Amino acid sequence: MSNKLVAASSFHVSPHLFLTQIDSLIEQKNISNDMTQLELLVLYKDALIEKHPDSVKIFKELAILNANLNQPKDAYTFTKKYIDNTLDVSILNNGAYDVISDSDEYNELSEYYLLQIDWLTFLFLYVSLIGFFFTIIINFSKKSNKYAKLFISGFVGVHSLFILEFVLFISNIQYQIPHSYLMASVVALLYGPLLYFYFKSVTYGFKFRKVDLLHFLPTLILIVYLFPMYSLSSNEKMEIMLEIDNSYNTYRYVIFITKVVSLAIYAILIGRLQYTQRKKEINAEHKEQPIDKWKRIIYRIHIIYLISYVIYGLPVSGLLLDFPYFINYIQVSTMSIMVIYLAYMAYVQPEIFKYEYALKDVMSLEKYQKSGLTNALSQELKENLIKLFVEEKVYKENNINLEVLSQRLNTTRHNTSQIINEHFNINFFELINKFRIKEAISIFKEDVHGSLNIIDIAYEVGYNNKVTFNKAFKKETSQTPSEFINSQLKKVK
C-alpha cells in the first residue's frame, strides 16, 4: 500500500464531525496536494456514513475530489447521486473533470447530461425549420383547395414538431427547457387523420363536415389523459427525463400503442381510397396524372414511417430493451425524408400545391357521361381554346390556371377540363407544358449562336423557375435544355 493510502486510511475523523468543520478544514489545507484530497475523501465519506444533513453537498464535493484524483468510477457514482438529488447538471462544468475527460465514465456523463451539438443535430434542426416554413407558406397559396392545403400543412407541421423534439432530446437542450418533454405527443394521433383527409380532398374534392370531427376525438382524449403529466412543474419533468421518477412510464406505453393503432388504421383507409380511385381510372381508361404518382409516393413513405415507428417505439417505450441506439434515428430520418420531399416538390412543381392539380379531371371520370355539354358547344369551345393557345399564347402567362382559362373561354372549369381531356387526351398542365416547350424549342432553334440564357427562355415561355422548366423540357424532349442547345449548335457547324 502506498504512503498516501496508508496516511489516508489512518486519518481519524470524529463521528460527530459537522460539515462546517469539514469546510473549515478545506480552507486550512492545501487543496492541490493529493495527500490532503485523500484525507478529505475520508472526511466526506465518514460524514455520509453518519447521514449528515448536508449529504447532497457532500456528494458534490466527493464527485469533484474523485475527479481531481483521477478516480473516474467514484467520480461517476457521486456525480450521478448529486445530479439525481439536485437536478443540477452544471457540476460537470467544473474544471476538475478535465482530469478524467478521457475516461469512459466521463464520456457517459457528458453524453447524458451536457450539450451535444454535431452535424446530425444541425441537419435535423434544419429539416424541422424547413417543415415549419412549408407549413406556414403553403397556406398563402391562392386558387387552391383550402382543405387540401390545410391538411397537408398540418401533416408536415406535426412531423416537424416531432423532429424538433428529437433535436432537443439528442442535444440535451431539453434539460434547459423541461416543459418541452413529450411536447409532440399532444399531436401523436393527428398524423393519420390529416393525411387521410388530404387524400380525400385531392381525390374527391372533399369538404370538411362537422361529423368528421369524430376523427379528432382520439386526439382530444389523449390530451386529457396526458394533462396530469403536462401540468407537472419543471423539476418534476426533469426527474422523469433523468429517470429518477418512473411513475409516468405508463404514458409512454399508451402514446406508443395508440399511435401505432392510429397509423395502421389510417394507412388502411388511405389504401382503400387509392385502390378505389385507381380502379375507376382503369375502367375509364384514364391516363395517370402526375398527382397520382405524387400521392402514391406520399402513401408509401407513410407506410415506411409506420414500420419505422414500430421499430423505434418498442425500445423507447420500454416494451423492448437492449436495442442498438441507432434505431432512434430511423423514424426521424423517415420523417425528415418526407418533409424534404414535400418541400422539394413545392419548389420544383408548385402547381401540385398551388392549384387543385388535376382534381376536376379525376372527378370528371364519373361526370363526363352525364355532362350537359353538347357536341356543338364542345366543338366551339375546342376552337376557342386553340385560338387562345395558338394566337394569344395564353400559356406564356406564368399565372395561367384552369380557372383563368375557363374565364377566357366564358365557361366552367368542368367544361374546360372536359374539352382538354376529350379532344387532346391530356390534362390542363400537360397541355400548358406542351405549348411552352414547343415555344422554347422554337426560340432555341432561332438562337443559332447560343447566346440566350436558359433562365430567360424559361421566363419567356411562362415558367417561374429554371428547375421546373428543365424538368418539363426533358420530359417532353428526353433532353435537358443544355443538351438540346449543344445538339443544335453542332448542326449549325
UniProtKB/TrEMBL annotation:
Q: Which PROSITE patterns match?
A: HTH_ARAC_FAMILY_2 (PS01124)
Looking up SMART domains in the UniProt record yields: HTH_ARAC
Residue ranges of every copy of the HTH araC/xylS-type domain listed in the record: 384-487
For this UniProt record, the keywords arranged alphabetically read as follows: DNA-binding, Membrane, Transcription, Transcription regulation, Transmembrane, Transmembrane helix
From the UniProt record, list the coiled-coil ranges: none
Q: Which residues cross the membrane?
A: 119-138, 150-175, 181-199, 211-230, 250-270, 297-314, 326-347
Q: What is this protein called?
A: Helix-turn-helix domain-containing protein
